[in-house]
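A common beginner's mistake is to predict each chain separately and then try to dock the pieces by hand. The better habit, illustrated here, is to supply every component at once so that their relative placement is modeled jointly.
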Amino acid sequence: MSSVYHVSVDPQRCQGHARCLAFAPEVFEFDDEGYSYIPEERSRFVELSEDLKLAIANCPERAILVKEESRV
Amino acid sequence: MSDEMTVGRDFDFHGPALDNIFDTYSELRSQCPVGRSEKHGGFWFLTKSDDIFEAEQSPETFSVAPSMLLPAFGTDTPMIPIDIDPPEHTAYRRILLPLFTPKAIARLEDGMQRTARELATEVAAQEVVDVSSMYARPMPTIIFSRLAGFPEEDWPKFDRWVDDIIYERTVDPERAWKAGQEVMDYFDALLRSRAGESDQGDIISHLLHAEIEGRKLSHEELLSYCYLLFVAGLDTTAWAIRSSLWYLAQHPAEQDRLRRNPELITTAAEEFLRTLSPVQAMARTCLRDTEVSGQKIQEGDRVVLVFGAGNRDPEVYEDPDQIVLDRQNNRHLAFGGGIHRCLGSNLGRRELVVALEQFLSTVEHFSLENPNEQWHGVGPLTLRIGR
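With all components supplied together, the output reads:
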């Protein structure tokens, strides 16, 4: 069975450093207070791009969460 | 035991101690990653990246009262929001958040580019020049003062106040407190002169109109915000620009590499921030007995998070003391983290990148004229321009 990656930003941990925006601007959005989020409709990935991996690795708060989900 | 307790006893992170602080960090790391210094009234220091990260994530144990600064920044007044703990901290910080988002900072782009280019053009016309006073300091002072609403005719006074409050405080505390009072008096008068005006679009206007829990900010609260913005907004970025130029002046091949590949400057800026961080350490106070990497720390003890050491932690970075301009994995602590993460980080980063872009594209080859000038601080950086 194949799986997909669900990627999200933990709002409790994000402090608005915006490093994710620097690495993967096509994935992350920012609210009016400068906190990052990923819109639900584009939060699933068959594979994680290099940019997205760098965004995850460089988050100072370790706030970007990756969960593997089995594909329905 | 006795050896371990004596190592680090004289550890300091100000003034001349910075000259060879990276060697000091290596020594502390190998002998006592959590240790005790007797300086500044006594404090525990944390040098490991993970320990610093954990402490930042635990404001209920590591309080910022009475101040994040050790020693104080020329005042007893807690600075809002950095010297305030939750729950009050949350609403205080939220007032400033919209002003420093990536979108808000993007609106300053044209002004930054223009200011940096004008200053760089003046530098380029010289043979030997102090780029600290001609470039690294004025660029962020102009950008931030415009954003904040600090009147242009007052800018010439700012450098001395910053020098006395931030740099002279460890040598001559009286001078720092005198300057602190002058800055308080200055903002007291500025705030009074602007009370009741319509929105001017700057930070002072924003604060004058802001509401916290259904009320306006008091004069004392406004003053505290202004004082913080003043000491946080000018000097840190100047240090970052100056230290980056200090490094590049000694590495002509790296200079040329960035000139040829300006898209690499954003990554290089992160590396300069990691290795030559303007804020080497910040203090906390322990609110309850705790333990860090096996070391017991008692309620009431001061604790210093040594970001500069964590940023060179070999458990986190490959070749931590090497400046690698295209380093990809670079989760550093230059802006701190947790609820007190530097609110101006998006601004500071952009200023540094623009400053380097404009400098490298405008000024031809440059080298150190005075090799005795140190990597740290905002003192003179004398460069020879041209080959």
